[in-house]
Amino acid sequence: MSSKRLGVLAIYLSKSRLEELSYFQRLSKEGKKLGVQVEVFTPDDVEGDNAVRTLTYDSGLGKWIRKRTSFPPVIYDRCRYKAAANYQMLKAFRNRHAKLIYLSKPLANKWSMHQILSENESIRPYLPATVRFSSVQDLLKVLKKHKLIYVKPKNGTGGRGILRIEQLGSDLYLLQGRNQQRTIIAPFRATEKQLAIKLHTLKLSPDYVVQQGIHLTLRDGRVHDYRLLIQKNGNGEWEVTGCAGRIGPQRSITSNLHGGGSAVTQDKLLAYRFSSEEKMNEIKKEMNSFAFTLANYLETKFGKLCELGMDIAVDPKGHVWLLEVNPKPSREVFRKIGQHSIYQKAVTRPLEYAVWMMKQKRIKREEQKEQEKTEDKQAES
Predict the structure, then answer these.
(1) 0.85 surpassed by pTM
(2) Phi, then psi, of 236 in degrees rounded to 5
(3) Claim to verify: residue 319 and residue 263 sit in the same structural domain
(4) Residue 76 near residue 306, CB atoms below 8 Å
């Protein structure tokens, strides 16, 4: 068995189907090169205080092997909280196994995150105005102020349940969106009164946030944004791994790849909107600089983190906006645009960071032993 073990905390989509299994397979193959054995498990696979049934990938056999073992000392949490029950189950797991080393900590929901980020003067200019949903009347006031708003579930992922509402004229509005299954809702043109009635039927609650909309529509009518991935490297330091553009399908209000969006390079998408190379370089530099500011600040609030996916918008004037931050980001966007070396880096960095964490733990243990020896000698003399 490899001397280095990395546990990957996952979640079942159905009784036996794990989310992200193809990513875990890739992680296992890359881990082998670094002398790290990747062991995948869910909270359901725990059989005691230090017993768990893990899956390891056998590349020779080309399949996953299940075995009963002790807990791996370092945990890479890839669970996505799509339901409140999942969140509670994972919170209970972390509380029960607090002595394990986790590569990252969970972040807050969209509303709490907005409040936390708003406290920082350097980050505030990058945040679209956001309020918690309270009533349809208040939502309409925000809409009249900004002319374009997005209504999002505070715990939603992958574009689920998001609405886009735009004021087209003095009494003409356009409502678009996706339901909880990510299906595109047919565009709905309405007067203010008709819109209010429609919004009441959608049963919005304080579990939603209302956010200032950024104009992200391209010439062909499709929306776009950027996914920037920043990760800890093998020295435990933040590094921007890459940034790619995402374009939503026709009639979609989001650009998520899971929702049918397509991926393009950052340069290609920037060039589509800005003709000046100087302007493009300026925007790229600002995105990267902001990513470091955000990552460092979030660690002061939540503790050690391993990687962050930032959904970034650039408005027609070139202003950079943060749409969302995700502590468990996908990296498929880089593979889809043919940036295989960046994709490779995106897969290996969590492994390299885990190895660094293990090394730090070993150094700390050795320092403690030395300290104890010195104290014993002093006590004897």
Answers:
(1) yes
(2) 75, 20
(3) yes
(4) yes
